[in-house]
Amino acid sequence: MRATRDPAGMLMMEHRLIERVVRDMSRTEERIRTARELSPAYVSTVADFMRTYADACHHGKEEDILFESLSGRALEPDHAKAMDRLVREHEWARGATTRLHEAGERYADGDTGVLGDIARGLRALAQFYPRHIHEKYGRVAEALEEAALVEAR
């Protein structure tokens, strides 16, 4: 279980869990389009997971620990831009999750007209996260390697 002691390994394990939830979000979005119904508890649960685990826990570690440790280092301009873009993407995901949660609350209150908004919100997040995670793997790993090489000189 070496991965659990390695900070990067922990983040990768967290990515795998987020990806599992995202796959379920994608399947649920498809069911909404075909069945035009959904358990109100589902949206609440997914929004809570995205806010609590994906954002506060996972993105918080990335922004407050990983990105912060890289911010004081001399990075290639492309890597610095990638770090800034990833932070902006976290901000977008927060907004998308808030909109999903709000639509879910309206649905739970009986407003079935928001099912389309919920489906679009699930689809947006489900399309966003795989690309976002892939970008992090490449750019953050490159930046970490670069920072280690600069320190070694």
Q: Could you outline the blueprint of secondary structure elements for this entry?
A:
Layout: H1 7-35, H2 40-71, H3 77-108, H4 115-152
Helix pairs in contact: 1-2, 1-4, 2-3, 3-4
Q: Which features does this protein show?
A:
153 residues, disordered C terminus, mainly alpha, single chain, elongated
Descriptive report:
The protein has about 150 residues and is mainly alpha-helical. Helices cover about 85% and strands about 0% of the residues. The chain contains four helices and no strands. The protein has helices at about 5-35, 40-70, 75-110, 115-150. Helix 2 (about 40-70) packs antiparallel against helix 3 and helix 3 (about 75-110) packs antiparallel against helix 4 (about 115-150). The longest helix is centred in the C-terminal third of the chain and has 38 residues, at about 115-150. It is elongated and about 55 Å long. The model is unreliable at about 150-153 (pLDDT under 50).
Number of strands: 0
Coarse shape? elongated
Number of helices: 4
End-to-end separation: 32 Å
Instruction: Return the string of H and E elements.
Output: HHHH
Content-based structural category: mainly alpha
The mean pLDDT is: 83
Beta-strand percent range: under 5%
Approximate helicity band:
over 70%
**Segments where pLDDT lies below 50 for 5+ residues?**
149-153
Radius of gyration: 18 Å
Largest sheet: none
